[in-house]
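Lab notebook: predicted structure, single chain.

Context: the supervisor wants predicted structures on file for every construct in the current expression panel, including those that have not yet been purified. This is the next one on the list. No modifications to the sequence; it matches the entry in the shared construct table.
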Amino acid sequence: MNFGQALEALKDGERVSRQGWNGKGMFLYFVPGSIVAFEDLRGPAKNAAIAATKIENGEQGSSRHICGHIDMKAADGSLVVGWLASQTDMLADDWGIVD
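Prediction complete. Output recorded below exactly as produced.
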């Protein structure tokens, strides 16, 4: 399948990968957007929300929208949050659905 078809499969909840990737067990998955209460944010995300609140003169008790994004399970088992496609990935026709 091509990249456009792989994107549609991701949005339908499928995991996808490329035959051309060197690492074993790598795949992409879609994380839908969500609303997170300010008090549930942690680490750098919470610090960024605090900074944005000061700039916007908003309420600290407000929630933040986490945008939907594509993540990758890498060959070493780590998770890459916010995976970005290369031009090679976007032009490839060797995409497939992972069981």
